[in-house]
Amino acid sequence: MHHFIDRRPNPKGKSLGNRQRFLRRAKENIKKMVDKSVREKSVTGADLEGAEQVTIPARGIKEPHFAHSPKGGFRKHVLPGNKDFVVGDTIPRPKGGAGEGGRKASEDGEGEDGFSFSLTREEYLEILFEGLELPDLVKKTTVETETVGTRRAGLTTAGTPNNLNLIRTMRNSLGRRIALQRPSVAAYQAIVDELKELESTPTPDEEEQARIVALQEKLTLLDRRRKLVGYIDPIDLRYDTNVPEKIRNSKAVVFCLMDVSGSMQEREKDLAKRFFMLLHLFLERAYEHTEVVFIRHTHHAQEVDEETFFYARETGGTIVSTALAKMKEIIDERFPTDEWNIYGAQASDGENFGNDSEKCAALLTQELLPICQYYAYVEIVGEEDEKLLNNADEGADLWQNFRKVHTQFPQFEIRRVAEPGHIYPIFRDLFAAGKKETAR
Amino acid sequence: MSKLLFDGPEWTFELLGKAHDAIEEIALGELGLDVYPNQIEIISSEQMLDAYSCVGLPLMYQHWSFGKRFARDEALYRTGRQGLAYEIVINSNPCISYNMEENTMSMQTLVMAHAAFGHNHFFKNNYLFQNWTDAAAIHDYLAFAKNFIANCEERYGLDAVEEILDAAHSLQTQGVFRYGRPPRPTAQEMQAMQRQRDGYVSQKSVLDLWTDSTMTSEDNNQTPSDEALAKRQGKMNLPQENILYFLEKHSPSLQAWQRELLRIVRYLAQYLYPQKQTKVMNEGCATFTHYFIINRLREKGLITEGSYLEMMHSHTNVVLQPEYDDPRYSGINPYALGFAMMQDIRRICENPTDEDREWFPGFAGDPDWKAVMRDAWANYRDESFILQYLSPNLIRKFKLFMIADDAKQANLVVSQIHNKQGYRDIRSSLAQSYDLAYQEPDIQVQDADLRGDRELKLTHAVREGIILDPKNRDEVLKHVRRLWGYNVSMTALDQESGARVSHVSTAA
């Protein structure tokens, strides 16, 4: 007797509950490692595509049990493969433990120092952005648009034929037919067949004739019953229903603005890039649909693709306001504010031409900030510029002007960074949950 | 027309059925095996990893440690540092074996012979499994345990359940009866337990009724001068080796549901205990069976030379025993030792030497080697099996030698080698290394005065000066304290002299 079962189509992720419990248990350690990894590694799209390998200290996830100490005492070991030992030979004790203590060391595959496993992209991002939230989801200046969609809302007994739920209907029908003993097609057909066969015999004897009569009676009875108990009765019918539902608009566009003039070297660009990537990832999780617009500028601004934005070189002067004007232009052209949530992120080394900074401030206050959900300005300073890092009062023209804007618009944030390690804390700082409430 | 069962690497359910029937004919008809009905399930690698993490059981309650095991195995598997087993077999009726979908048809045949007949026969006939596990009921029990724990999580919160399970898991090895047979509850008692589980009966434990009264009190050599102590020990069935059992019955601080959690962990530990005690025999039996069957299949012309070679290749990999100085050496391979011993028993029956006749007068030259083998499979566990059946011939073949490792000496000493003087010593030492009661620390509950300081007193009998790993010990004691609710102390006493080696307590 054998019995084969194909288990492969069974639902996957049977151990998902265990995994969640494990992540929950090791959360603090994992969080620490994720924060560290994002600080150390370059946050490019490629890095975050696949699974993330993390190693966490084994401390918090040890499973202790009573065990003999690997050292001390008297023990006997039986080993295979004697070559040339005779009784009484002495062997120096192997280093690092008594006897073959070494082989028992990692009974469950983990060393003293760490436990390695991989996080999926979702888990990684979940932990990375944990506790962060989007600032000011509700716009003040524009009405949030709502589109109307539909949502499944169970079953009803009335509806249009195109919404008929066949499975439910047939289930009801079958139950009713069984309960009311409607003769099945097969049973009915069997009688018809038998009758036909009997009738086709040329000279039926008495017994057969009696049988024919009995069958005919039965057939009329079954016919009657079949008529009375319908195959599908209106009572069986079930329809899917949908109810209209208002869906909140969830499209976002991120404008990444970067100064690419001669003063922005690889280091500066790398820092800016990290910030932009984090922002992009974060918004991608928060919105159904996120678009990114890259604008680079020297003394003139242009919209470019990602590749050009991060890697291409260009020389020229520095006029920041051109980028802001370009952003405004693109918004007017392609992103109507009643449909899109608009985010701005700008990175620069703080240098600007002449009195252009005032123009920038004016552009921001009058044109851009009223329609932006959020705008972050990150100034990249030299690692040795501690004076600038620690003192917000110091700074060039652009910084000073932006500081003024900051006091007027709470959705406008300015920060300074000097090294990769700063990016993530600053990012967390900008988006920390509940920060807005306390700030105001 | 060709008699071949299959030709080519791809398997189908139809071919599997044909192969199964051919194997069954040999296994039952020729070897005389007696098996549970087979239920063979084909699973994917991910499902195999799932099964790994849940100690091979088909249903398991949820706990973070299983998630940890899964994450580790997955990482090892994905990076290619660890392969997956071809099959997992469960001691249940019907006998469930999981076969990997990646296996070729030859491998599926080998795996069926190995698991669905070899292991299956062993589960059904070995006395340990017969006496200690209930193959027909394990699925229902696992389903109950899973649901019960899920309900507890819902009612009392993940943290509360995790705390108890963590503590209980740390005492798993101390959660089995090694000597006393666990009492079987009667139908009424089962009903009472069910009511308790459902929450109808309050705190008062009905379990006391059936366990304490039916458990035979263990012999107590000590003669406590204190009469109160004697009375307490008698009442609580002390000393008690099964710490989880003791805590479940007598802990003053646990709720009914928490006791049930301990019971679940204890029950599963007990269910798996026979498997831990019969690794060599179980694998030996299964490997011998598949070896016999694939050779018979070949002789009958049912498989091609190619697939026979594929099976033999896998077989020889499995029974490889690296020598002690080989980098691959990681202890004695239970497959190798078990298989070699089974083959050796057959040889002793068929072609005994004088030495065999001297050592094994009971069965040397026995015309029915199959009966001798079945008898061995039914009535021994690793320790007694090796003690009884390991022959000088095999000791020579494995070139076994013994090392005495005395921490007081600077060097290790070779104490016995594979010669006439050494056989018995090597055999009994090897047997002892498979005796779990000896290999696992001997820890007992000695006393707990519920009317006095309520301190739970544990003792560790120190054998040969081998103490407990202090880090682990202290962590586990913390867990015990959590379950007991009051302070816990552990005294290590030398087994020979009775001298106190150490004493620790959770009281600061």
Q: Can you describe what's shown?
A:
The complex is a heterodimer of chains A (440) and B (508). Chain A has helices at residues 16-25, 27-40, 121-128, 166-179, 185-200, 206-228, 266-286, 306-311, 320-334, 356-368, 386-390, 397-408, 420-431, 435-439; strands at residues 4-6, 52-57, 74-79, 90-92, 114-119, 146-156, 239-248, 251-259, 289-297, 301-304, 341-348, 374-380, 412-417. Chain A has 440 residues and is of the alpha/beta class. In chain A, a hairpin with a 3-residue loop joins strand 9 (289-297) and strand 10 (301-304). Chain B is of the alpha/beta class and 508 residues long. Among the domains of chain B are: 13-126 and 278-313, no CATH class; 319-437, no CATH class; 440-505, no CATH class. Chain B has 22 helices and nine strands. In chain B, a hairpin with a 4-residue loop joins strand 4 and strand 5. In chain B, helix 7 packs across helix 22 and helix 13 packs antiparallel against helix 14 (305-318). Chain B starts with 12 loop residues before the first helix and ends with a strand. At the A-B interface, strand 1, helix 1, strand 3, strand 4 and strand 5 of A face helix 1, strand 1, helix 2, helix 3 and helix 7 of B. Strand 4 of chain A pairs antiparallel with strand 5 of chain B.
The helix fraction of chain A, in percent, is 25-40%
Low-confidence spans of chain A: pLDDT under 50, at least 5 residues? 97-112, 137-143, 435-440
Largest sheet of chain B: 4 strands, mixed
Looking across the biggest beta sheet of chain A, what order are the strands in? 10-9-8-11-12-13
The first-to-last residue Cα distance of chain A is 76 Å
Mean pLDDT of chain A: 78
CATH architecture type of the largest domain in chain A: 3-Layer(aba) Sandwich
Number of helical stretches of at least 4 residues of chain B: 22
Instruction: Please state the CA-atom Rg of chain A, rounded to the nearest Å.
Output: 37 Å
Q: State the order of secondary-structure elements of chain A, H for helix, E for strand.
A: EHHEEEEHEHHHEEHEEHHEHEHHEHH
Output the number of helix runs of chain A.
14
CATH topology of the largest domain in chain A: Rossmann fold
Number of strands of chain B: 9
**Largest interface, counted with CB-CB under 8 A?**
A-B, 66 and 101 residues
Alpha-beta content class of chain A: alpha/beta
CATH secondary-structure class of the largest domain in chain A = Alpha Beta
Contiguous low-pLDDT stretches of chain B (5 residues minimum) are 200-224
Class computed from helices, strands and strand pairing of chain B = alpha/beta
For this structure, the quaternary state is heterodimer
